[in-house]
Amino acid sequence: FDEARRKLVAAKDAVLADPGAARDRLVRAFTARGGVVHDAPTAADAREAILAILRERGAPLVAKGKSMVAEEVFLNHHLEQAGIRVVETDLGEWIIQLSRETPSHMVMPAIHKSRQQVAALFEMEVGRPVDREDVGAMVALARAELRRVFLEADAGIIGANALIADTGTVMLVTNEGNGDLVSTLPKMLIVIVGWEKLLPTFADAAAQLRLLARSATGQEITTYTSFLSGPEPGRELHLVLVDNGRSAMHADPLFRDALRCI
């Protein structure tokens, strides 16, 4: 673990030594593969960029994967106010969305909810009784409801665990597989991510994978790891690259190390 951490710290420090150069490499590689990059200096810029993309394409239904940056910029609230329906597809995030709360934990957002509370939320959503004790039935209900969203969504929105500068690749890590469905079924995908997720190479991303699940849930490796390198023919891939105070953190020696966070 310590050796993997040392390698990842070195990779992160290489980016932090010159973030502009790493960002430029990423943008060149990402656009060369057919993607579109949108700069978002502030939270408002990130929200407006995504809203503009969805409005231009006439996308009223969005399937959304887990994204802490989207929480950071209050993306769902902004899109819903504009008349766009956003559905969280991570099970815990969907529960929290139905309860009109914000996540209580970055890995387990609904850990504070009992199965009885979850059943009550599901009852309100589907309009029929839900067994308060049958967790398997609740999961099956969620699967059926969310599968319909995956198939009908006009666009998908995901976060990213890493951006590989050399190849313009988005790395996405999940335990439920919803991120894969969000990123492959809709015709358009929007990735919202802070620039601190930049890594130089695929080897650096592999070092992060060795650390990520161990540090979050105690797993040796996560269940699903996806690498997205450009859109398929007839599809769109957008990258909203968020600053929102990260450059100010980078300029402050007391806070710079926080930009290594995975």
Strand order of the largest sheet: 1-10-7-4-2-3
* Helix/strand class: alpha/beta
Number of helical segments? Answer: 11
Low-confidence stretches: none
Summed over residues and divided by their number, the pLDDT gives a mean of 95
Cα-to-Cα separation, first versus last residue: 14 Å
Helix fraction, binned, reads 40-55%
Structure at a glance:
It is built from eleven helices and ten strands. It has helices at residues 2-17, 19-32, 43-57, 68-72, 75-81, 91-98, 115-126, 135-152, 178-184, 202-216, 246-251; strands spanning 36-40, 61-64, 85-88, 155-158, 162-164, 169-174, 188-194, 198-199, 224-228, 236-242.
List the helices and strands and how they pair.
Elements: H1 2-17, H2 19-32, E1 36-40, H3 43-57, E2 61-64, H4 68-72, H5 75-81, E3 85-88, H6 91-98, H7 115-126, H8 135-152, E4 155-158, E5 162-164, E6 169-174, H9 178-184, E7 188-194, E8 198-199, H10 202-216, E9 224-228, E10 236-242, H11 246-251
Parallel strand pairs: 1-10, 2-3, 2-4, 4-7, 5-8, 7-10
Antiparallel strand pairs: 5-6, 6-9
